[in-house]
Structure prediction request, 421 residues.
Amino acid sequence: MESIQAIKQRFGIIGNDPKLNRSIEKAIQVSPTDISVLVTGESGVGKESIPKIIHQLSHRKHGKYIAVNCGAIPEGTIDSELFGHEKGAFTGATSTRSGYFEVADEGTIFLDEVGELPLTTQVRLLRVLENGEFIKVGSSKVQKTNVRIVAATNVNMFDAIKKEKFREDLYYRLSTVEINLPPLRDRKEDIHLLFRKFASDFALKYKMPTIKLTDDAINLLVKYRWNGNIRQLRNVAEQVSVLEQNRTINGNTIQNYLPNTGSNLPAIVKNSKSESDFSSEREILYKVLFDMKSDLNDLKKLTMELMKKGSDSDVQKDNEHLIQKIYGDDKDEEFEAAVEDLEVLSLAEHTDADEDIVSETEDKYHFAEEIEEEETLSLHDKELELIKKSLERHGGKRKLAAAELGISERTLYRKIKQFDL
Ligand SMILES: Nc1ncnc2c1ncn2[C@@H]1O[C@H](COP(=O)(O)OP(=O)(O)OP(=O)(O)O)[C@@H](O)[C@H]1O
Ligand SMILES: [Mg+2]
Prediction:
């Protein structure tokens, strides 16, 4: 059996909190069985890794893993998405379609936000859980499927049962084993650890030096309520990494990024699409746009010079600072790689168009994501990990990292773009 530590590394889970470890241990223990698991915990605590661990460690790992966000599917189409439909079952059903439960036969389905399922769908789900049977919408033929179900919720299921929004029998069927993830405020030891990891990831991503926190800034982070949990912490780390010029962050600065600090009143719980999420994204986009605008102005100036003087070698000398600003140290490599990226992009546009044509005639799964088999996943992860580590070791210097990895600098540049590092 893989150790908890190895699982954390494989699935990118940071933290040493005993409650977190216990949850991961439970996931490892239930993975070889077909027991239904309900993952609970506040929004942003990291529930989505648990079903992935369970699937990858189970005998179903070569089967499909389909994650369905039950809260995002309109009530009118959810039965058809999950269980499929017959041709003519409703207006617009021009062909027979398989649902997720048919497609994921021999695999795992992750039902995220399961508390949002309409009552009629809950009845169908109960039947699948009890004897593996389901019926397509508009059909009378009973079909069989062998699917392992892992569900997750961030709402109090007992409240939902009391309000008759969720069937009690289904709740007990789904939660044979419950795995609860602790809120971040109860994992104080992990807060700085997580922040450091996110800060170093964002430094690499935005090609800026890593931010460092002073002791009073760390104290504030540890004391904060983190109603949005790890998602909120990651968000704060990203905002600070992008917006602060001074890379040493003190308490005063960090306070600006923590809504409601200094107050003992409970903070208002926000969901993932909160105002602050949007404003941080907006600020990051502004920064990118300003940078692009500045690059564009520099390029305009350079082009104007070239038009006036032709390819006179003095143009390069006169505009050395601009060329340096736009292309950095290794201007030839970056420039060539950028040109190559453009070619790749135009190729990708063609492929997308082709796919569109194909998808007209095929079934689409709008609300679910599918995860490839473990081999593909871990190969990709390993390559990503190797590149990240090498870049970290060499302080982000691509030349040294490329030499260590035995690839050309240009290939490394492409990988950085491809993996969005
Ligand atoms: N232990 C962890 N280490 C590193 N990153 C984490 C950890 N836990 C969560 N994250 C990151 O935090 C973010 C939120 O996690 P996730 O989407 O799993 O939350 P959730 O519990 O499903 O929340 P919700 O109920 O709102 O859907 C993700 O970007 C995830 O990668
Ligand atoms: Mg989630």
Summary: Residues 261-279, 338-365, 372-377 have pLDDT under 50 and may be disordered.
